[in-house]
Amino acid sequence: MELKYELNETNDGLVVTGGENIEGDLVIPSEQEYEGKVYPVTEIGDNAFDFCENLKSIIISPTVTEIGAGAFTGCKNMSRILISDSVSAIGYGLFGLCNSLTCIEVSEGNKVFDSRENCNAIILTDTNTLTHGCAATVIPNTVIEIGAYAFEWCESLKGIIIPPSVTIIGDNAFCLCSNLESVVLPDSIKVIEDDAFFSCLCLQKINTPESLIEYGEDVFRGCPSESLKDYMFNFKAKWNKQNRELREGNMTKFYFRLNKTEDGLVVCDFEDGGSPLTERDVVIPSEWEIRGRTYPVTEIEEEAFSSYDKIVSIVIPDSVNKIGEGAFSDCDNLKTIVISNPLLLKDANVPEGVKIEKS
Fold first, then answer.
1. Which residues of the chain does CATH 3.80.10.10 include?
2. 20 to 30 Å CA-CA from 228: which of 65, 88, 94, 237?
């Protein structure tokens, strides 16, 4: 085996960029001669060993501080990796298509990452975020977040048990897990981010946690729509019911979600329930009850009322302290806005000629 190197950005260490005839058990050296001088090996570059199909295991030396994105993608026969205590930065997508990987071990002396309880995963210690996993991963019940791309392209993953400590599933966390068949989400889950289950081609069943308060875009993009349609519908229906709470009155509907601090509501959408030819006077409520608790309405989301050209007047309660960009853009028939603090409208794209009345 012959490794290839280049100098790092500060010219005081070497980056492993790849190699030839990479096979069997590989140990990344601590130092290497390069252009007549001996340097420490400090990094494994992006995609350095991608698709080295004969690589079986790798041990990373105690001088390496960074492992680049996709460094081991496609190493289909790699079964074990040992990460030294010096590693402090790891890129996304480290183990995609590593379908034989059964042992991920982080040195106990590492102050940034750990693999607690022999979980066969990499966990960011300070935030309890699982950043990289494999089919053999057992998520510890101390993990709070499954990070972005944590199980990306893990084709050998068929099922996963998510413990009740987990509150967030990051974007693309299980993307391209083409053999993942079912997922049981605990009622602790509050956030599922964009494309979390993108292209999980075999996903047949998933439940909807009651705790969900934030649901990203295209969570099930590329999943089998026929087998998942009931679950996708339930997700959207329960999301609307629980967290974009429906407020009906005078043939109008508002959809709310909790704000980032979970102490107020954001108006995130509006729906006209009446005749499409009927003009509307809209009054935003100052508070609303969700799951037995009453919250003040504190924000109007970006483009929340955009392009609703049947609105002629809107009353904004005093509780609102933030109005997003373009909130009233293209409201062509809007004539009056009643608000206590007109300065909140500076980025709302209020059409010209609209009368602003102070409440």
1. 2-242, 246-358
2. 94
- Sheet with 80-83, edge to edge strand ranges: 24-27, 55-59, 80-83, 103-106
Q: Which CATH number fits domain 2-242: 3.80.10.10, 3.40.190.10, 3.50.50.60, 3.40.50.1110?
A: 3.80.10.10
- Annotate 223-275 with three-state secondary structure: CCHHHHHHHHHHHHHHHHHHCCCEEEECCEEEEEEECCCCCCEEEEEEEECCC
Whether this prediction's pTM lies above 0.85 is answered by: no
Domain 246-358 = CATH 3.30.420.40 = no
Spatial separation of the C-alpha atoms in residues 235 and 188, rounded to whole Å: 15
How far is Cα 91 from Cα 171, in angstroms, rounded to an integer?
A: 15
State residue 51's pLDDT score. Answer: 95
Residue type, 87: V
Q: Is the pLDDT of residue 37 over 70?
A: yes
**Which pLDDT value is given to residue 275?**
41
CA dihedral 101, 106, 107, 113 (to 10 degrees): 170
Q: What is the mean pLDDT of residues 35-60?
A: 97
